[in-house]
Amino acid sequence: MERKPLKGIHHVSALTANAKHNYEFYTKTLGMRLVKKTINQDDPSVYHLFYADERGNPGTDLTFFEIPNAGTTYPGTNSISGTSLRVPNDESLQYWKNRFEELGVEHDEITAESGRATLAFRDFEQQRLYLVSDENNDGVSGGKAWDKSPVPQEHGIVGLGPVLLTVSKRENTEKILLDVLGFKHVRTYTSSQIHDGKEVHVYETGEGGSGAEVHIVERDDLPRERPGRGSVHHVAFRVENEDELNKWVEYVKQLQIPNSGFVERYYFKSLYFREPNGVLFELATDGPGFEGDESFEHLGESLALPPYFEDQRDMIEARLKPLDTKE
Questions:
Q1: What are the φ and ψ backbone dihedral angles of 19, each rounded to 5 degrees?
Q2: Percent of the chain having pLDDT more than 70?
């Protein structure tokens, strides 16, 4: 059964121990829009927050599960060790460097990584983040920054850039990317400072460009990462629609790769599996999107529950700590 190439990065999901501080940082400091305040569908007792461009276009979502008792992350191998966010151009990085200095956000200097101006920074839980300039990007287009953001629209975050994996055996992950998911190995580069001067391998899918890349660093000198607050849970790749996802479900099943099978997430449909180094991959459909249960004007203001959780709303709301997102 012929499958279309994956279109790029769909979303990245990470962990936070504090939904309130997380909301304040990603909306007020980074200027992203909270497009959905919902629950972790695998554990309805905790929040799942989606930050994105103005309407949560595929490829723009950085999401967080709130795990209040999450411990410290001990960085290491076999992990998603960096998430990048795209900004319009090189000038935008200077704006962000100044903004981080004014607001006391921990950051590095602007460098060139893989031919792109890049600014590494950390959030309040040491989430490892990078701003990358789209100035020379000619691949998958970004989204549109929200015009009501505290960040000027001309410098706003327009989507997810390359996702960095640190693994103990690169060839194991590479085999899945190339032979199963249809990525191409396009180049290598030596990291100037961000990745300890190591060689980084770049893989791309679909139209390519920063919104469709996975970067891999091999490290056999590190222990396995112990995840906690500020760590990344999984990365999702874009599938055009439900019919395409069903083809992937059948294909992964035929390959006898342990997987979740088809999963209904309401805002998109999904398939999950782990590559041999243990990193969790998801394939997710581009639609239906986030406006099925809230209007564009009021995205993220109320607790949204997929229809199959509505009969549990009273119990769910009683267990969640109130989070005011109507500002």
A1: -65, -40
A2: 100
